[in-house]
Design a protein that fits this description.
- The complex is a heterodimer of chains A (about 250) and B (about 220).
- With about 250 residues, chain A is α/β, with parallel strands linked by helices.
- Chain A contains 9 helices and 10 strands.
- The longest helix of chain A is centred in the C-terminal third of the chain and has 16 residues.
- The two termini of chain A are about 35 Å apart.
- Helices cover about 80% and strands about 0% of the residues of chain B.
- Classes of the chains: A alpha/beta (about 250), B mainly alpha (about 220).
- The interface between A and B is medium-sized, with 32 and 24 residues.
- The structure holds adenosine-5'-triphosphate and magnesium ion.
- Adenosine-5'-triphosphate binds next to helix 1 of chain A.
- The site of magnesium ion (MG) has 4 residues of chain A, from helix 1.
């Protein structure tokens, strides 16, 4: 059974359709790259799946339970969020918390884990993203790449079943992109299930198992990563890949 | 009066005025500002959360306070409320009015500070499963307070000085005490100069406290580079 299944998701802003019936199936261990031009609805898709936006219509099956995306109870939403992680384009680290506190806040406040145990987990997560030694730094004292790695550690702390990444490297200076992608590559190798909206074609090509290409709120083409890059079916996909200098 | 006598008067009156300041002006300021802060946080949170009905009431409250003179508000409560059958002692009336008045201004400060926290901060909280109150308590309010500290101190210092208006409703605070002395001696300049100096001492203490607070809160690590 799929870990996550999205069926027929619709979302409009001010009457303008942004998602027009997208379907998505994610199995455990999948790394799904979502590609597409600006404004195609990629961010909106992730935000609707995690209820940062309320979809107008659509169904989600997550962990064997079915939810109406337009009418999910607050309780269910909180429960779903506790089992998922979200990594933002601009990190969104809590500015009033140190790196370690950013990672442990969810553990102590949401999960009511005692501080000592939370700190132990927090340090372990920071180590996993190569941020040991920066536990007591505030976000403002860290580079963009370091902040994004702390944000990934924060997402990992909850031991999520899936992590959503919305263009995690787009806000970074070119020389900092590699350190974040390396962490994500390592997570993929460890079997973490991930959905990654990205403009990094090499990451999509080398790391992802599946690719979804979106445009205008619809999925234009999807397939295994190998198939997608080596043998795209749609002319629109080929054109996009040519523009991104992949072929 | 000879210079000697004026000096003598000043030396005699200074401790009296200072005591009146410590015993009335300071408590009036501290008590009223404490209530004002509680009102401000509550009102600002109601408006921030856009609670229906309540946030409209808060808007009317702020509109009324900002649009009317403080002295009129003092007179309404002290001279006006007794006609409704509620006789309010001067000090109590002053606390009520200063709390409500300052609460409205501080609420505006707090609301602006809350709204200055980027929406991504709350979203990150939602994403790790926090609820609204947890997000407010651990993320939004601490950041908002950091922003609000300087303007809140400005309000506090203004209020300290405004408490002199309570003299008009029979509260024997420092300024009222000074008026009594001048009524007896007709030495306006020396006495009011003394009062000015004492206000200056009090406000300087608050300014020093403000600097210490700001240093301690310095933008979450920004000072450590
Ligand atoms: N909160 C909002 N209110 C109104 N319109 C919105 C909102 N969020 C997104 N949109 C619009 O929806 C469309 C899709 O936006 P979305 O951010 O999902 O695109 P995207 O594929 O992530 O683009 P990008 O690659 O630039 O990040 C855009 O036209 C955008 O202007
Ligand atoms: Mg986007």
């Amino acid at each position: 059974m799929a870990l996550l299944e999205i069926r027929n998701i619709h979302k409009a802003f001010d009457g303008v359709g942004v998602l027009k019936g997208v379907d998505l199936t994610v199995n455990k261990g999948d790394v799904i790259a979502i590609l597409g031009p600006s404004g195609s609805g990629k961010t909106t898709l992730l935000r609707c799946i995690n209820y940062l936006e309320t979809a107008d219509q659509g169904t989600m099956v997550f962990g064997g339970k079915e939810y109406d995306l337009a009418h999910t109870s607050k309780k269910d939403i909180a429960a779903i969020r506790r089992r998922t992680g979200f990594v933002f384009q601009n990190y969104n680290l809590f500015r009033n918390k140190t790196a370690l506190q950013n990672v442990t806040l969810g553990l102590t406040v949401v999960r009511k884990i005692n501080k000592a145990e939370a700190d132990r987990i927090g340090r372990e997560m920071l180590k996993r993203v190569g941020m040991e030694g920066k536990e007591n730094s505030y976000p403002i004292q860290l580079s963009g790449g370091q902040q994004q790695r702390v944000a990934i550690a924060r997402a990992l702390a909850a031991d999520p079943e899936i992590i959503y990444f919305d263009e995690p490297t787009s806000a970074l200076d070119p020389e900092l992109i590699g350190e974040v992608l390396n962490v994500m590559r390592k997570l993929a190798e460890e079997g973490m299930t991930m959905i990654v909206v990205t403009h990094e074609m090499s990451f999509a090509k080398d790391v992802s198992s599946h690719v979804i290409f979106m445009e205008g709120g619809n999925i234009v083409e999807e397939g295994s990563s190998k198939e997608f890059f080596e043998n795209p079916k749609k002319e629109r996909t080929r054109e996009f890949l040519r523009m991104e200098n992949v072929r | 009066m000879s210079f000697q006598e004026i000096l003598q008067l000043m030396i005699e009156s200074f401790p009296k005025l200072l005591m009146q300041g410590i015993q009335v002006t300071v408590p009036l300021t501290v008590i009223s500002f404490t209530f004002a802060l509680i009102i401000a946080v509550a009102v600002a949170m109601i408006q921030y959360a856009k609670v229906p009905v309540l946030s409209s009431l808060c808007r009317i409250y702020i509109w009324f306070i900002r649009g009317t003179p403080l002295i009129v508000q003092l007179y309404m409560v002290f001279f006006g409320f007794p006609s409704l059958g509620w006789k309010v002692p001067g000090f109590t009336a002053a606390v009520i009015v200063f709390s409500l008045n300052e609460g409205a201004y501080c609420a505006e400060t707090m609301r602006a500070a809350l709204e200055s926290v980027p929406s991504g901060q709350a979203e990150a909280g939602w994403c790790i499963g926090m609820n609204y109150l947890q997000i407010m308590r651990h993320i939004i309010l601490p950041q908002a307070f950091r922003t609000a500290v300087p303007p809140l101190f400005n309000s506090l210092i203004s209020m300290l000085k405004d408490t002199s208006l309570a003299a008009n409703i029979t509260v024997v605070e420092m300024f009222f005490a000074a008026q009594r002395i001048t009524g007896r001696t007709y030495q306006f300049l020396p006495i009011y100069f003394e009062v000015a100096i004492i206000y200056l001492i009090f406000s300087s203490a608050l300014m020093a406290l403000q600097r210490a607070c700001e240093k301690k809160l310095n933008s979450f690590g920004a000072d450590r580079g």
